[in-house]
Amino acid sequence: MLTIQPTHTTSAPLSPPALPAASAPPLPGALVLLLATGAGLAVASLYYSQPMLGVLGADIGASDSALGLVPTLTQLGYALGILLLAPLGDRYDRRRIILAKAAVLAAALLLGGVAHGISTLLVASLVTGLAATLAQDIVPAAATLAPEANRGKVVGTVMTGLLLGILLSRVVSGFVAEHLGWRSVFIAAAASIALLGAAMWRSLPRFEPTTQLSYAALLGSLAGLWKRHGALRRAALAQALLSVGFSAFWSTLAVMLHGAPFHLGSSVAGAFGLAGAAGAVAAPLAGRIADRSGPERVTRMGAGLALVAFAAMALSPLLSAHGRLWLLGASAVAFDLGIQAALVAHQTIVYGIEPGARSRLNAVLFVGMFVGMALGAALGSVLLAQWGWLAVTALASSTSAGALIVRLWPARPDLAGDAPVSIEVTAHVSQRP
Fold first, then answer.
1. Interior CA angle at 340 toward 315 and 331, to 5°?
2. Distance CA 82, CA 67 (A)
3. In this predicted model, what pLDDT tens digit does every residue of 58-108 receive, in sequence order?
4. Nearest-CA neighbor of 82 among 33, 34, 137, 30?
């Protein structure tokens, strides 16, 4: 059981305690694969709708402005779920939380699949976002189970699954929607989550709580963590800025490709996820680099790469329609590579702050990230409608530049509120399924 005794000191910055290598064997590969698959399937639920919006809107008679609320409410629900539900992983058995959320998520996806009006679909989208936060219970679970020596690698591998879920979800949903209808996408997704829940029930160990705080105190402690740790604030702000551009691109791409001069369907829009998926190889690589030389360098490299990739899309008016498609694909590879590498590095930073508060620290980081996602989806839709695609790329370039500035700005521990904390940790994870 994790016992935490905080004592503020003026000593050297906190280094997370490590268990002896002999007492921390590597995680079985099958369990790491299950965790990665679970994170991917859960977070994919947030993105299935994006390539289908054109087809979906015509079927249920929804306006473009109403359709724009589908991804916005899903991302907003995810941010709210992280804020209100993810901290429970420190207070209760993460296994039970994961199983409960899997059941709710499967039901919400099924509701989306049978929706006959925009109102029902919007409700299903909000609940889907709330329940899909089971991905943010899986990632801290992986960090808890992994030995200190290769925690970055394990988290990076699980994040590869999560990020592939984000990117390949668009490919799958675009193709299936065009050939079998958009409803079949939601129904198949519900079935996959139900199967995931069964696998997690059989394979996951139980986790002992790391705190006995009440729910109100647990949520209240988020503000204390935010105030106390400048490293957490910098990570959340930088990742939120990167997420604005990421979401603005992906939430408007299908609408842009549907119009002139491309006139392309949902399957082509979804296929751009394949280009972005190439960037998912950055997750385990970034984790290994962070393990060896520290994550700060990785965050700067990731933000810089995203900035270059988004800025390059300003060249679109100079190219033919065919050339613009190639530029979009190449840019998607590059900015996904950068943003995903930065995310893994930020998680490595955050998980090392207070091991007994990993779920809450993760919640703060991902609330920032998905508030950025929701803001990017909303702003991207407005900018595309009012000023066109170049305005979307200008937004993405500006926010990526902001993230790079945050990471390059010299840290000031004496002003950032990073009073080091001495933490005594005794780790215990029940291995009973």
1. 15
2. 24
3. 778 777 667 778 888 898 898 888 888 888 888 888 889 999 999 999 999
4. 137
Rounded-to-integer distance, Cα 134 and Cα 140, Å: 10
Asked if 270 contacts 51 with a C-beta cutoff of 8 angstroms, the reply is: yes
- Radius of gyration of the chain from Cα atoms? 21
pLDDT given at position 432 = 35
Each residue's pLDDT tens digit, 372-382: 988 898 898 88
Secondary structure class of 83 (helix, strand, coil)? helix
Phi and psi angles of residue 63, each rounded to the nearest 5 degrees, phi first: -75, 165
Which residues touch 326 (CB under 8 Å, ≥6 apart)?
none
Are 36 and 162 in contact, with CB atoms under 8 Å apart?
A: yes
Look-up of token digits 């994040």: 159
The CA distance from 335 to 241, in Å, is 13
CB 344, CB 286: distance < 8 Å: yes
Compute the distance between CA of residue 405 and CA of residue 382 in angstroms, rounded to an integer: 26
Q: In this structure, what DSSP letter does residue 410 have?
A: P
- pLDDT greater than 80 at residue 255: no
**Residue 4 burial (CB count, 10 A):** 17
> Using one digit for the tens of pLDDT, what is the confidence trace for 324-345?
888 888 898 889 889 988 988 8
Residue 52 and residue 266: Cα distance in Å, rounded? 6
Residue 84 CA: distances (Å) to CA of 104, 131, 194, 213, 344? 16, 11, 23, 14, 23
- From residue 192, alpha-carbon distances to 40, 45, 189 in Å are 11, 10, 5
User: What is the per-residue pLDDT for 412?
Assistant: 64
Distance CA(309)–CA(283), nearest Å, equals: 18
DSSP state of 263: -
Cα-to-chain-centroid distance, residue 181: 27
3-state secondary structure at position 224: helix
Handedness of CA 131, 177, 39, 249 (dihedral sign): negative
